[in-house]
Each structure stands twice: as C-alpha cells, then as structure tokens.
Amino acid sequence: MNAPAQHPPAIRTTCPYCGVGCGVLAKPDGRGGAVIVGDPDHPANFGRLCSKGSALGETLALGSRLLNPMLRQSDGTMARASWDVALDRVAEGFASTIARHGKDSVAFYLSGQLLTEDYYVANKLMKGFIGSANVDTNSRLCMASSVAGHRRVFGTDTVPGNYADLDQADLIILVGSNAAWCHPVLYQRMVANKRERGAKLIVIDPRRTATAEDADLFLSVAPGMDTALFCGLLVHLADTLSIDYEYVDGHTNGLPEALARAREIAPDVAATAIATGLAPADVAAFFALFTATSKVVTCFSQGVNQSAQGTDKVTTIINCHLATGRIGRPGMGPLSLTGQPNAMGGREVGGLANQLAAHMNFTAVDIDRVGRFWHAPNMAEREGLKAVQMFDAIGRGEIKALWVMATNPAVSLPRASAVRDALRKLDLLVISDNVVSNDTVNANAQVLLPAAAWGEKDGTVTNSERRISRQRSFLSLPGEAMPDWWIVTQVAQRLGFAEAFPYASVGEVFREHAALSAFENDGTRDFDIGSLAALGDAEFNALDPVQWPARVNPIKDESRFFADGRFFTPDGKARMLPPEPPRPEAPLSPEFPFRLNTGRIRDQWHTMTRSGLSPRLGAHLPEPFVEVHPADAAASGLTPGGFARVTSVHGACVLKVIFSEGQQRGSLFAPIHWSDETASSARIGALVAPANDPHSGQPEAKATAVAIAPVTFAYRGFVLSRARLTMPAETWWARACVTGGEGLLIASNDRPEVWRQRAAALFGVDVEIAEYIDTPRGSYRLAAFADGKFVGCLFVGPAEAAPQWDAVKLMFETETMGEVQRRAVLSGKSTEGLADPGPVICACFGVGLNVIRAALADGVAGNVEEIGKALRAGTNCGSCLPELKRIVSDGRVPQTA
Amino acid sequence: MATVRLVEELSRRALGRYAVAVIGEEPRLAYNRVLLSSVLAREVSQGEIELKPAQWWRAHGVTLMVGQRAVAVDSDIRRVRLANGATLPFTKLVLATGSRAIRLNVPGMDLPGVMTFRDLTDVAAIEKAAETHRQAVVIGGGLLGLEAAYGLAKAGLQVTVVHLMDRLMERQLDARASALLKAAVEAKGIAVLLNAETAAIKGHQRAEAVALKDGRELPADLVVVAAGIRANADLAAAAGLQVGRGIVVDDHMTTSKAGIFAIGECAEHRGICYGLVEPAYEQARVLASRLAGEDARYDGSVMATNLKVSGVDVFSAGDFIGAPGTEIVEFSDAGLGSYKKLVIADGKLVGAVLFGDTVDGLWYLELIRAGSSIAGIRDDLMFGRAFVERSHPKELAA
C-alpha cells in the first residue's frame, strides 16, 4: 500500500553564515541542490531561518567552484595538477622555506568558515610541528577584541551566558550590533521577548540601523565613544549605590581603579552626554534603566570589536555587569555575538596567533602540556603574528610562504591593496578554497587546492553560546574537492609528521581535540569537552547540539559561567580593568573630514562567494553604496542615487550614494561585501586604516578618516547575461546574481553610440540582435537571442532616467519568451496584461488573427461583414477579405453540446 | 475601386437622389486591384477579388455598363460618348479612370512577351505566358513590380527584378527597410538588381533578353514592365479640362469645369497624383458628401503606405526618412523580422516606417495626423498602442 520513500531523509546540519549557528534541515533534490528549512529541534533557532539561511538552497551550484588542484606555470597561467603533485609542491615549498629562512618565515591564515577539525589540524601542524605560532585567522577582524576582553577580565575566553538569557531578560542592550540584519534569528528572539514579556530594548550605535526600529531607546553614540558611555554608567551605578559589593568584594579585583578611571572619563550624566554626543536625558534614561533592571543582557558585536580600543570597550561593558553581579545567572550577563559560523570553534582550538590550543596559552606549563599531549618535537614558544602584523611581515619579505584557507584577505584586511601587493611578493602562496577566482587567488597564488564546501564537508562548529553543532555533508564531494582537515593532514604527512597526523576520518580529529581539552584539566580550564572524546564514529555522526563545557565528571552546573564568582584567573577573581581614555585612532583633517564606518548588509555575507550565488539575496541591495547624512551630502555636492568617490590615505572606492537620516553628521557607512570580482571599485578594505587594538590586534575597521566627492556618470544601465561578462575599463559596474544568469548594473560616460559599437560583441557572434535606439534621448538597448532563446541584454540610458531592470529580470528567468514579450522586452517594462493579437490579418487597421478568432468565438461576429463592423478589419483596402473568409469558415467547427 | 466606394458612400447619404450609371472599360465587375499579385500567385481566385456582386449594384440602383469604353466627353452639352457610338447625358460626371502602366521608351518594348501588370487581363496574359516561359525579368522595384515578381515566382518562374534606383520602393521605405525588403524578396528566390537601367528588350520573334545600360544582358522570355503609372487623363484633356500630371481637381474634387469631378489615381490634387487606395477612398468619401449636399473638403492625404509586399507587411507614413532637425527612434529585431523607425519633431510624431510588424501602423498614422504631443509616451511609443494604453491609461484618455 505504502510506496517506499522516494527521497532521502533531510540531513540535520548547521548554517554556514553568522555566529548564531542555526540548525538547518537539508533535503538533497538529487540534482546537486537541496531544499533547506530550519531545524525545529535546534536550540539556536527552533526552526527559524533568516533570509540568507533560507536561500542556502540557491547557493549550491558549482559554476564558480574550484574543482581540481591547480598550479601556477612558468608562463604565469594556472594548470590542473593531481593532488599528489600539488601536495608535494606545498610540502616542499614550506619545507624548503623553513630550511632556508627559519620556521617563522611561514604562516597560515585561516578562517571562521573552517570547521573545528580543520582548524585543529592546521593549528597543530604549525604550533606543534613547524614550531611557529604564525597561525592567524579572519576572526582577528571579527571578534578578537572580545577574546582579549574576556581573557583579561575572566582569565579565559569565556562567553558566560546563553541565548536563553535573551528570552528571560527584562532589558536587552545592543552595543555596536545591527542584529536585525547580522544576527536576525537571535534578534527576532529578543523582539519576541519584548513583545511577549515586555522586555525593554536599548540600541547603542552611531548609526540608526534596522535594529534601532524596535528599540525603546536608541542612543546614537559618537563613533568610538561606547567606552565613555559605559564608564559613565559605572560611575552612575556607584553614585546611586547600585553596586553589588558582596559580589565585587568576593569575586573581583580592580573596581576602585576602574571606577577612578571612569570618573576621569565620564564623571556624570552631563559629562557622559558631552563625550558621547548624546542628549543628557537619553543618557540618564539609559543609566536609570540599567540601574533598575537586574535581568539585563548586554550584547555586543563588531561595533565594539572592530576598534583600536575594542578590548577596552568590552572591558567596560563587562565591568558594569561585574559591578552589579549580573553575570552567569538566567537573563543576565555580557554576550558577545560572533560574526562567523565557527569563530568560536577556532578560538576553542586556539587557532589565533596569541593562543596556543584548547584555551591554553603561551605559558611554560601550557606549552609543556600541549607538547606532551601532541608528542610534538618542536612546540612554538611564543605568540605569532596577528593578521595585520602578519601581512606587514609578508610585505617586508620576512614571511615567504603563506597558506590561506577559506578566506579572502585581499578584500577583507585593512589597507587591502597593500595586502594584495604584499601577497605578490611571496615565494609561495597556497590557497585552499571553494572558488576558482577571487581577489586573493588573483594575487599570484602558486597553488590552488579545491576544498569541500558547506553541504559537502563534515565536522563541527561552535556558535556564540558555546554550542557545538554538527555540520554534516548532504552532497557528494564535487570534482576532486577534499575537506580541509584532509588537505592539511596530507601536507603534514609529507613534511614527515605522519605519526602525529594519522587521521583518516573527521571523527578521529574531533576525538583528539576533545581529549586535549580535557587533558590535565580537572576543572582548571573552562573549555573541556572530554565527555565527547570517546564518541564512536556513529555517535559522532549522530551528535546532537551540545553546549560546552562537557566534562567527563561535571562538578557543577556549568550551563552558565561565573554565577558562583569563580573565574579562571590565578586568584580565581575577575579583573576589573581601567580603560584608556576613548578616542578614534585616526584624526580627521580638512583633507579627510569624514569618518568611514563599515559593516554588513542584510542579505550578503562577507565577500559574497556564497550569498552572491542567490538571485533572491542579490535583489535586496545589488549595488555597493555609501550612506551619507543628507546635510553632509548636500554640502559635498552629492545627489541621492548618484555616485561618490570615497578616498582615504590608503585607497579609493566609487560607490552609489544613499541619503540616510540614520547616518550621523560627519560619518559615512559602506558595506564590506564587494570585491574586485563583484564590482569595479568597491573593495572597502582598501580604504580602511591598519590601526589596531594593542591587546587584541583587531583592526579599527569602522573609523577611517576619509573624503567624499561626487562622481558623475552621464549614463546608467544594466546588463543581463547567461555567462560572465567583462566590462570595459572606465565603466562603473556591480555584479549581482539573477535567476538564469548574472546581472551587471553599470554607469558610464560613454555615449550610447559607443555602447552600441561594443554591444554587438558582448554576447558572441552567433546571436540574433534586437535593438532599440533613441539617440536624442541617450538611450540604447539591446537584446540577444540564440536559437530563439533570450541570452542577454544591455540597457543604457541617461542617468536621470536610468533604465530599471526589474521587469526584464523577470523575463530573463526563462530562456524562451513569447512574441508579445519579445516585441516589448526592450521597453524594459512588464508585458503583463498584454494580449497577443496574433499575426496581422488586416494591415490597414492592424487587426490580428487572435483578435478575429476571439470575436468569432465570443459571438461578437459571425461572418466577414460582422467582423468588419466589430473590428473594422477588411473594410479599407479589402485585400484581407479572402483571408477573413477562410478564418470564418475554419472557425465553424462543430460545436459540442 | 474608387467608384465602388463612391457609390457606397453616396447611397448611404443620398440613396435615390441620383440615377447612377457606371461605365467601365474592363469587361467585368469592379475588382480589388491590390490582390492582383495574389491572383497571380494563386493565393486567391479571380472571382474572390470581385469587390461587389452584380446584385449589389442593382440593389443600389446603378446602371452598370461594363466592357464599354467612354471615348469622349462634351462638357457643354453634358454628354458622354461611348465607343459603340451611344451617348449618355449627365448632370454630374465623375471621372475615375485610374492610371495605366508606363511603357519604357527603349527598343523592343513591343516585342511579344513584354507585358504590363495592371489589370486582370494582364494577369491572364502573364499566367498564360508563365505556362510555357521559365525566365522572367520584372522592370521596376516599386510596389507593383515586386508584387508581379512575387506572383511570378510563386507560379514557378525564375524571376529577376531590375530597378533603376539604389534601393527598392524608395518612395515608401527608408534605406534600412528597403534593405530588409530586398533580403526578404531574395529569400523568396527572386534576384534583385539595383542601379540597373534598362537599355533595350532584345529578341527576334519575341522577347529573349533584357539589356542593361551597363552592358549586362539578362535572359528573359517574359518581361513585365512595372516602372510606374500615369494617370488616364486623355479623355479629360480632350474635353478641355485642365490636366497636369492628372486631372486637376480642387478640394471639392471638382475639375476645371463645374459638375465634372475626378477621384482616384486619375486625379491631381494640389499637385499630387496619389497611387494608393487610401487617398482614393478619402476622395470618394468627400465627393459623396458633396454630391449629397453636405459640406466636405479634401485636404490631401498624409502619405501612408500600408501593405503586404512579397508576403512581408510594410508600413510608412509622413516624413519617414527624417528631415534635418527631426529625432529618430529605431527598433529592430532580426529574429522577428521586424524593423521600426519613428520620426519625431517638436515632441510630435511626424513619420514612421514599419517593416514586418505593422500592427500599429494605423495608430501611428492617427498620431501623425492628430499632430498632438507624444512627449509623455515617447519611451513607450515604439512598443505599440496596446502597450502604451496599458502603461499610460490617463495619458491617452486625456
């Protein structure tokens, strides 16, 4: 009776985007794609997904993938190579570089996109066997200041609370976090608490973002002045006798010094208001609300972290929670929201240059312990170079071989153009990635290694609440792609470390990582997942999401940390530290009078290599832009929807101008997602100053001094094509994925005649061309067809009446189009509601066959004369009368009852 | 054709006011000349192109005198004399004598096998010749010549069109539409020679070749001359009416003598002899109104061509070339076989050429004639009436 199941069951896995770590159910469709829904049983999201997560199914195509190892040839081209040859080349390259220049002449640059197991193997190889700590990661750009803040206050990189606290809090404070766009599922959880329990929401951000929409109080703090605000709060807590001295005295050190410094920075409401640029009443309201609410969670994100004083910002936030004892208990505590799917896993592994492994550090005891566990002959003995310093060292020629995994530093690092130039100086640049081309690959990579992507790779990730979830494979490995842990293992074996790198499965790696976390731990280190060290492969594969610690012998409930006041410092007490007086690193000047803030947009992710494959996501904000306050814009001669060149000492971009009241005067915002692959001039990293936090090394990505000036393009337009097209130099363009192909939004000063000359060649020689030319209006449009199929189009028009692509994009979704659509496609407008009149029968009055047939079918006309009366057809020259007669007689088919 | 329309209009306005007699030289009821090539191509039968049956004429009280040639008009005594010697008195006389094909002034024009293409008699002669002849040359790349060539090609002959000018239908089409038409004609297996001036028809007993001025000789056992038409104005001239290129008429279609009118291809109005059906119908309408005692005048027609040539729809109207100072908007889609050009001056549509897709020709003609601003719909104008009405419901309602 029941047919056997036709489809494989949905695979439980974890979303590859932000640090919320939502559970995903992926059901492969058998054609390389999958149906994606939220996992109702995952405690991070309970079935919800954001726009990016929902669109994951649209990002699985292989068009942009690197599918084979590739080696740079002597003539500069890349050629396919076998895995053996490519791995030998990597191993020999690293070995010979180390032999000639020492172990610190090589480095790994990793990514929060890697799985924990990938991270573990890479970290072990570099720190235990090569003997250098030159392992850093793009997490340095993301949450290093949180790590540093946690470590110097708590003694460990510990996130004290849980997501569940957001359900139970009575006050949620978001600092430097556009959670509505960047952590949407978690944000909706906060909004639900507000709606259902009446929790208050305070948003502290220089920019009025989407997150501010739901806020009870929005504090448009001056850039970089969060520290002053929380110093003012600490003073206010002291002055209103709201400090929990029992907790402070029992479990912390340093309040007097921290408070004294706070009084210097922000002695009262008025001083705080001046320092932060806020209205005194708003400051007072914030202080009062915090003081009066014991269940308060303070979430912080890149607005806090990406600062030359990020560690101080984190510290001052935590200080307020420690001073009130509001930490580690339900509904309260500081909560760092991480930006990447596995920044936390990387931190657990120790995959940062200033960590050793498994939350152990470069102390003699830890180095000895890890060395014994790994049987490592050559332990690194001091911290390595953090990202910015690492690329500086590459630029100076000190690092000569670099292996980049799953990240794109030529786009994302500060002073990205200098980084790209530095990469070109390397003797050996190895890249493991999914994509065949990106800005880093194009910076003279010598070896490309095809890595497994999300949906193919298998292992674990950890989200912002310390929850380890499985990323499972539901698609087979395409081409010759292999998991990163396997690739690193192969190189380690070729370097002579086969005994220490025997891994044949990802489960083996995970078990070793778990065992290391528990090795000589006995509750002395926060990170301990020893209970998972004995999982069999089947158990590992079936592992449910699990929060750490997961000790073999739990001594107490550790679902939250620090409620008991025991910290992982030598004396067990938290260290409340005084911050430096706050100030942005780079001073403004008449030449560079604006401060550039950077960040993410709702529907894109990092450099768009995955999210950029989804037409749905590409439709939200398809062009790289800069947001400007209308008054600043007017003063700078900008026009809404026009273009501007944003310039810093380090580089320049040309971006579309958006007027935004949510932008502070003197401050600009530009998203980070575009690269040279996706836009002509929008690599924001190229502008960003390399200033970084002295403790965390995290760059100040949100406070670069810049200038802005209008750029005028007389013509605007778009291109749709099935295959990738290259635009001529001097053309401004932004690439976006559209259903059925790629779209380019373009702007240019080339006249339509020039576009017409180059258009013919754009879509190849074997196409039929349709054109619309209104030269006096500055309008040129072309559509290309191959075998009757719509293969591309180009629309150019005057900037003030730029062609819009929405209707054409819809037509482009299908290859074939009816005649009505084809006749009107160059109008750029929808053909909805247009009937097809059919071939013309009466030329004089333009009456089509379908119209005549309809008149006959509807009984409007029954013979040639009546057709003439109703439609005028045949009443002029009469040359269609014989044809009309035939249509009438053909129409007299027997009627069925 | 003009006569049929005149009788139709007149009987609608003033049935019974006049006793009408129609004199026709051809021995048959009036038929649709536009379809001659379709008859030649055997797409329609000879009977199907008859405009009105005999009982229609009777029902409208018309005395039909077909196969009767009018040989003289005495305007003083108001009589028409027929070839058989009979005379007919009239109070009003309408001359709708049409036009005839020009015969070239070159040697050999009188050889057997050289024909014109103007009426059903010509069609019958060509059909008969086509049964035994294989190679035809059509002299003239205007509408008539192309229609004849199309009909001959359909009948199975090898056809070459010889045209004096550098492009086909130069009076109705711009260069690009002409080029497209040439390609369409050639696609039907018809050879086209441009800039080709006929020097002579060669042959002994009958036509054997067409010799061109450049020295080329085209073998041909059938030659169809379609190099233009001339108004049939001899009758009027002999009667003392003012005649230029045609019978000169005023805005009321009245000739130089009161009570005598001329319409259709024989008439010259404001210096123009129209060779198309549309102006003839307009003139018939105006004259019918006048004869019915109404006030009406003919101001001339905006030159519009709207027809099927060799199976391709073409349309042109107004200043379709685009005089200096005008603005041109073009559309083409090779795959659809469509080319359109709109000419705009001072925010008004002043001309149009359509090739392939002529659905909106009449609408463009209306816009040209109306002379109202199209500024608000310019960007959509090219995409046709239905499109504009959908996108600008208010614009057109206003």
Characterise this structure.
The complex is a heterodimer of chains A (897) and B (398). Chain A is of the alpha/beta class. Chain A folds into six domains: 11-59, N-terminal domain of TfIIb; 70-142 and 347-462 and 484-502, Rossmann fold (3-Layer(aba) Sandwich); 149-337, Dimethylsulfoxide Reductase, domain 2 (3-Layer(aba) Sandwich), CATH 3.40.228.10; 594-711, Beta Barrel (Barwin-like endoglucanases); 715-827, no CATH class; 840-891, BFD-like [2Fe-2S]-binding domain (Arc Repressor Mutant, subunit A). Chain A is 31% helix and 19% strand. Chain A is built from 30 helices and 34 strands. Chain A is globular. Chain B is α/β, with parallel strands linked by helices and 398 residues long. Chain B folds into three domains: 2-100 and 230-291, FAD/NAD(P)-binding domain (3-Layer(bba) Sandwich), CATH 3.50.50.60; 103-227, FAD/NAD(P)-binding domain (3-Layer(bba) Sandwich); 311-397, Enolase-like, domain 1 (2-Layer Sandwich). Chain B has twelve helices and 24 strands. In chain B, the strands form eight sheets. In chain B, strands 8-15-9-10-11 form a five-stranded parallel beta sheet. In chain B, helix 5 links the parallel strand 9 (135-139) and strand 10 (158-162). In chain B, helix 1 (2-14) packs parallel to helix 8. The longest helix of chain B is centred in the C-terminal third of the chain and has 15 residues, at 277-291. The two termini of chain B are 37 Å apart.
